[in-house]
Automatic annotation (TrEMBL):
GGDEF domain location: 312-445
Start and end residues of each stretch annotated as Disordered: 1-42
Transmembrane segments: 91-108, 114-133, 154-171, 205-223, 229-248
Ranges of Basic and acidic residues composition bias in the record: 15-26
Location of the EAL domain: 454-703
Signal peptide: none
Keyword presence, Transmembrane helix: yes
Protein name: EAL domain-containing protein
CDD domains: EAL, GGDEF
Length: 716
């Protein structure tokens, strides 16, 4: 305020200040009545406040409510403003120049040459240069700071040009008759309109021009003494007010659009971050923290498919802890987990340029190597890894020696089949464990003999009597809410007269290789459906389909025929699919899934998180259930493991899918799953896979009064 002084944080009127000074002077001067000279009022704070307010008003984002509180939003607004006015300003300068030249032409013979030609000889080239400058600007190269600087400069330049043009027009109005003066009026009016439209995305500039032109124009014509011109001035003033209102409304709509786009971008970035985090968790082994099987095979596939120059060799090494199972059985899972974590930490030390490490599952680890990037022979490198992994691990008072064997396969060909390379490394590992325990075996022609054993397995499979040699065992799936068995998973068993008991992990891949899988699937499914007649109607069947079954329309059709002729309601049947099966031919798999679900059969994605593209398939396919892989269940004691399992449960809940936790082996795991909201569990704690007669004796099968604890099921 003009009559005030500042004292600290207070502003006191000058009269009160003077009185205070006088009173103090009276006291110090002994009451002699002398008053000190008043201090001059400081104007710097007032000027600073006015200057700050002016800077805020002239800010390009003036009028944007959230811009001040959100610098990122203000930056987006400035960039958007700059992008929009860059398209309009050249047209504005062109319109202004043409209108000014037309006005000068009508006054050419009436006004002095310096006024008609001289002034425009300066103003028109300035407008042309500015228009060319804006036209040639590359908006993509303008950042926020540059946009802010240019917008502020534009506001200042438009203010100066508006003063120049309206002043020139008012001086020119003194020459000529009624028509020429009417032309001046039209020039001013359409200039204001053009400025408002072309600068609507930069309101400070538009309002500054409108204010300058309107004040000068209205003052000039209202004081002219001509009633007609006064009326015209008032009409133009009213139209200007309306257009300013439209300008502000449009700018608010523009701001709302930018804010909506910013919010959408923020949500997309957050979704992308969550997806990346989910993918990271899905690629991470929950127990050890190193990359998992899914990551390894994805990297192996990408490396083998990528073009390579001659001499760029790819190698796969697989390492297995020889004595891990005895350690785990003797000292318990907790100690076993610590051994695996220590092994993963040791392996992680070898990761680097051209070397990727992963845990495949259990006590098995893998290393993917780009040999050209190593500083030593790949065999020596792998031997060093094995030596590091076999070193004793001290846990408490125990000194544990896990041992380690390895298998190495190298591919120097231009085209390398990833699964074949992995199988070769696996064959080499098998040879090490059988014949050279504690060593690393490099796959060679010698190991083809092992492949011949696989061929013998296929031959025995083709000659097998499916009805006599194959049986089905059933593993229960428990509903924790009802505390009763609601599903059983049918698992095939083969006892060969020549080979003895053969693991499904061996004979199922062999059946797929030799083309026996379709006949095997149909025969075992028919037997399982017959067995379902001996189970309570509220108990469903979960049955695994091979990848080749899924992509074969003929097999899918025959499966539907078997289900239709069994007398078992399709709603009791769930087919389990693996992500590998979906990877073979997604379109064919999707068509088969659609056919099965149309009959009421449910579809479950098995071993979720261990394949290639879990999130993608969950999103694209019509699934009913997801089965969490046992590797995640075993890692529930860790923070990462719990995070992964919680993420999967949240995903299922959001998508309306049932979720089955596999591999439940301890009461602690069961309690954690129950706390997470899991309803369906499967594992040795609930019950092992047993023949149908033993399954019927399970205490939680069709009981009217369920047992109080799950431990009873384990006893079965």
């Amino acid at each position: 305020m003009p009559d005030a002084r500042e004292y600290g944080d207070r502003v006191i009127p000058a009269r009160r200040q003077d009185a205070a000074h006088a009173e103090g002077a009276d006291r110090t001067a002994g009451g002699r009545g002398r008053r000190p000279r008043p201090r001059p009022v400081g104007t710097a704070p007032v000027i600073a406040r006015v200057s700050a307010g002016l800077r805020r008003w002239l800010s390009p984002t003036a009028g944007a409510p959230g811009a001040g509180a959100d610098p990122a939003l203000a930056a987006r607004i400035r960039i958007a403003q700059f992008t929009e006015i860059q398209k309009q300003i050249p047209a504005l300068y062109a319109c202004l120049s043409v209108n000014a030249l037309a006005l000068a032409a009508t006054h050419w013979s009436l006004a002095p040459v310096w006024l008609t030609a001289g002034v425009l000889a300066i103003l028109v080239p300035v407008c042309a240069l500015r228009a060319l400058h804006w036209y040639r600007l590359d908006v993509s190269r303008i950042d926020d700071a540059e946009a802010d600087r240019r917008l502020r400069r534009t506001i200042a330049i438009t203010g100066l040009l508006s003063v120049a043009f309206v002043g020139w027009a008012m001086v020119l109005d003194q020459y000529g008759g009624t028509f020429e003066r009417g032309h001046v009026t039209i020039f001013v009016a359409i200039t204001v309109i053009a400025c408002i439209f072309c600068l609507m995305h930069l309101p400070p500039a538009a309002l500054l021009i409108t204010g300058i032109v309107s004040v000068v124009f209205l003052s000039y014509y209202l004081l002219s003494g001509n009633a007609v011109f006064r009326a015209i001035a008032l009409n133009i003033a009213f139209v200007t007010i309306v257009m300013v209102r439209v300008l502000l409304n449009n700018f608010q709509s523009f701001l709302s659009l930018i804010e909506s786009q910013a919010a959408l971008i923020d949500k997309q970035e957050e979704m992308h971050r969550l997806v990346e985090e989910n993918l990271r968790l899905a690629h991470t082994d929950s127990l050890t923290g190193v990359p998992n099987r899914r990551y390894f095979f994805a990297e192996l596939d990408a490396l083998c498919r990528a073009p390579r120059a001659p001499g760029q060799v790819v190698a796969v090494a697989i390492f297995d802890l020889d004595r891990f199972k005895p350690i785990n059985d003797t000292y318990g899972h907790a100690v076993g987990d610590r051994v695996l974590i220590e092994a993963a930490d040791r392996l992680r030390a070898f990761a680097g340029d051209g070397v990727r490490v992963a845990r495949l599952g259990g006590d098995e680890f893998a290393v993917l190597i780009e040999v050209a990037r190593l500083d030593r022979p790949v065999a020596a490198f792998c031997a060093e890894i094995a030596a590091r992994l076999k070193r004793p691990v001290r846990i408490g008072e125990a000194r544990l020696a896990p041992g380690c064997s390895g298998g190495l396969a190298v591919c120097a060909e231009a085209e390398c089949e990833p699964h074949r390379l992995f199988e070769q490394a696996d064959h080499a590992l098998y040879f090490s464990k059988e014949h050279r325990r504690g060593m690393v075996t490099v796959y060679s022609k010698h190991h083809d003999d092992l492949i011949q054993d696989g061929h013998r397995l296929e031959a025995a499979l083709q000659a097998a009597d499916i009805e006599d040699e194959f049986t089905l065992h059933y593993q229960p799936i428990l509903d924790l809410s009802a505390r009763r068995i609601v599903l059983v998973e049918g698992l095939a068993r083969w006892t060969s007269p020549t080979l003895g008991d053969v693991s499904p992990a061996r004979f199922i891949p062999a059946a797929e290789r030799c083309g026996m899988i379709h006949a095997l699937t149909l025969a075992l499914l028919a037997r399982a459906l017959r067995d379902m007649r001996d189970l309570p109607p509220e108990v469903g069947l979960s049955f695994n389909l091979s990848s080749q079954d899924l992509i074969s329309p003929e097999t899918t059709s025959r499966i539907l025929d078997v289900v239709g002729g069994s007398g078992v309601a399709p709603e009791r049947l769930t087919f389990e699919l693996t992500e590998t099966a979906l990877m073979m031919d997604f379109d064919a798999a999707e068509a088969s899934i659609r056919s099965l679900r149309q009959r009421g059969i449910r579809i479950a994605l098995d071993d979720f998180g261990t394949g290639y593209s879990s999130l993608s398939y969950v999103h694209r396919l019509g699934l009913d259930k997801i089965k969490i892989d046992r590797s995640f269940t075993s890692g529930l004691g860790t923070r990462t493991g719990e995070s992964i399992v919680r993420t999967i449960f949240d995903l299922c809940a959001n998508l309306g899918l049932e979720c089955v936790a596999e591999g439940v082996e301890t009461d602690d795991q069961l309690d954690r799953l129950r706390n997470f909201g899991c309803h369906l569990v499967q594992g040795f704690l609930i019950g092992r896979a047993v023949p149908l007669p033993l399954l019927r004796d399970h205490p939680m099968l069709a009981r009217s009064e369920p047992p109080a604890t799950v431990a009873t099921g384990r006893a079965a």
